Amino acid sequence: MDVKRDILWRVYLSYLLVVVACVAIFGKAVYIQQVQGTHWRSMSDSLHQKLEEIEAERGTIYSADGEMLSTSIPQFDLYMDFRVASLHEKNGLLFRSNLDSLSECMADLFKDQSAGEYKQLFQEGYNNEEGYLLLKRKISYREYEQLKKFPLFRLGRYKSGLIADERTVRLNPYQMLAYRTIGLARDENKVGLEKEYDSLLKGRNGKQFVRRIAGGVNVPVDDTYEIEPESGKDIVSTLDVFIQDITENALMNMMVQNEAQTGCAIVMETRTGKIKAIANLGKTESGNYRENYNYALTPTEPGSTFKLVTMLSLLEDKKISLNQTVDVQHGVWQVAGQTVRDDDDTRDKTTITVKQAFEVSSNVGMAKIATMGYSSSPLQYLSHLKKLRMDTLTGIDLTGEKPPVIIRPGSKLWGPTTLPWMAFGYNVKVSPLQTITLYNAIANGGKMMRPYLVSSINEEGQLLKSIDPFVVDDKICSAETLRKIRECLEGVCIEGTARKLFMNSAYKVAGKTGTALVANGNRGYADRIFQSSFVGYFPAEAPQYTIAVIIVNKPHAVNHFGASVAGPVFREIADRLYSSYIRQTNTAFVTPKKDSSAFIYTGNKRDITYIDQQLQLPFIDSTARTDQWINMQGKNARVIISAKPKADEHVMPLLKGMGLKDVVYICENSGLKVSVKGRGKVTGQSIPPGQVIARGEQISIELN
Which residues of the chain are under the pLDDT cut of 50? Predict the structure, then answer.
């Protein structure tokens, strides 16, 4: 009996302990769930959620004439969440009733799979209850807008399960136009204006909570931001699309014709120093040409275009006169065991004037007068290089400008031949941008302007900062020296090396040719590679533009002289600029009388030319017969008609300045629905220029 009681006591005790343990576990579970639940749930979320940085929309780079040169457009990766409850209600009625039509729409839009294959993809994702099934990567905004109207997807994210992961990509609407100058917006390899103004263009990134789900994918917790992203500022460049286009085409044509290696061409507005065009072309391994490097910022031995520095220095120091004679010794002169040689222009001559030596680009003549003037005081010559800022950077607002190379007395590289060779552009390295800055100062009455590429900074269409022309040196030389130098530069194009080039020109040019033998790496000068140059300004009496063209030819090129390689490029650019912007109805250049009738209109070519004819307004027409949309600008008693550059048909154009009739025609042809406020010319548009558009989209137009 005692044994039985002892056993029962142990059983009851064990049972009691089990009951107590169960009650304790149940109580602890209730305590954790009800009392500590909020804490543990937030900790769980913190392990799967994080604050992710949201990239801000990058600002747009515009041309001086309002065209987009670089802008950001949205791009989407599409996913589908098949765990959405609405897809499984009533045995999946919503999903099954839209499956066939959705598959057909997807196949019709993307044309990469058949409707059957899309149906199978959706069906498998539904059966497996996929939480983040990839549908498509990198679709455009236009495609996304179409896709949102598809069956099922039109119900929105929370009923259809459609998830769009948006990001922005950088687009150059004019593709390779000024590509190296505008720059690339790659994360670690920005160049050009994209790099120089990166802090303004990139804006401020935002932050948003995202949750990490299966497959390592982050999805937004909700549609709100912890910190709202702030879009970048827009910058307006000094580049002109029309001038850039003719500059690149002229340079490309000559480089292809002469099978050249590299080349650059710069167009500068004389009075302000604004860079209106800058083209850089290099030959690739495939034999094509592209903007692969900014040669305009890279110092090279300039050759005869540097003779301007020597002539200006000697005239300013009154060491020579233009009528003074110099013995060129039939184009051959021995100096310290080395030979200075001329081309054919002096082979039959012994004595010529200093002015003639400059005009026919005599190396012997320039070396002799430089040696005569500065052999005992070379630092005096170098002081002029400093005054003319040939020993420093130009200060252009563009990353990558390299410093010049100037040999100085006392250096191990300085010798008895340094000064005479420097006189005609060797033993010194300067960039094309430095050279054009100096020539532009001569054209601008001795006032040196700092070259620049950005004229203003805007935010949402409002001006934040205007960047004005900057005078580096108000007077680089005396008025007398300036007069003589301009006479010499004009003489080059009348009596000198460029006389044939401008023989029948409708306008007068002042400039200088240059032909320099350049080294080819370790091979030195053995490959006989010549750099052809022409730098000048026009019209010579009242300069409007300064142009520099520098082309490095292929080895042993037969045609390698500055007047026959770089000169024709200058002439082609100048002819187009003259006919488009400068020429008067009487063909002779005169300073136009200013009035208050400045205006600018954009519209249909037929309508605008009809009005001009009815009002008897003489106009300069530089458009082609096929151009439909044009700009008409009136300024200083002149009316100029130019073609409005064409952009991608799927991209929103700039409508500013157009009349309502033309705007409605353009927008409705693109499938847009137009709403209008006000009357007059367009001052604002709800879809910004450069944004990808979709048919059926609404656009609001504001008139002035």
Answer: 46, 187, 214-216, 584-597
What is the predicted pLDDT for the residue at 486?
Answer: 97
Hunting for tokens 């490097």 — which residue is that?
A: 293
C-alpha closest to that of 310 among 581, 527, 512: 512
> What radius of gyration, in Å, describes the C-alpha atoms of the chain?
36
**pLDDT tens, position by position, 67-120:** 888 877 778 888 888 888 888 888 889 988 999 999 999 999 888 889 999 999
Tell me which CATH homologous superfamily contains domain 52-234: Penicillin-binding protein 2a (Domain 2) (3.90.1310.10)
Tell me if residue 300 falls in helix, strand or coil: strand
Q: How much is the pLDDT for 569?
A: 97
CA distance 62 to 241: 10
Q: What topology does CATH give the domain 647-704?
A: Trypsin Inhibitor V; Chain A (3.30.10)
**CATH, domain 241-582, list 3.40.710.10, 3.40.190.10, 3.40.50.300, 3.40.50.150:** 3.40.710.10
Question: pTM of the full predicted structure?
Answer: 0.71
Quote the tokens at residue 681: 């010319």
The pair of three-digit structure tokens given for residue 415, joined into one six-digit string: 């010798």
Name the packing angle between helices 307-316 and 378-387 (round to 10°). 110
Domain residue spans of the chain: 2-35, 52-234, 241-582, 592-646, 647-704
Q: Which pair of structure tokens corresponds to residue 477?
A: 């030389």
Chain CA centroid to CA 474, Å: 30
CA distance 151 to 153: 6
